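Weekly structure sync, notes
Attendees: PL (lead), two postdocs, one rotation student
Agenda item 3: pending single-chain targets
PL asked that the sequence for the first pending target be pasted directly into the notes so everyone works from the same version. It is reproduced below exactly as submitted, 77 residues in total.
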Amino acid sequence: IADPGYGWGRGRMRGLGRGFGFGRGRRVTPLYPQYDYEPYPLTKEEEIQSLKTQSDQLQKELDSINKRVQELEVKSD
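Predicted structure, written out during the meeting:
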């Protein structure tokens, strides 16, 4: 896991406080409470929005991975 915690990725945005749009992927949603040094957790709405954004992002990543896999399969035929 060679991700220093910028952008979207496995260790994303650790300890940078709320909503820093740093690195590769622009974060719009607030961060998870465990990466957050502000004293209050997310509200329900924020959490829902955060999860939606994450699922969209993961879906995009999956799509691009699947596309890459198909390209490689075509080449190897």
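Discussion points:
- Residues 50 and 67 are 26 Å apart (CA to CA).
- Residues 44-76 form the longest helix (33 residues).
Action: rotation student to compare against the earlier draft before next sync.
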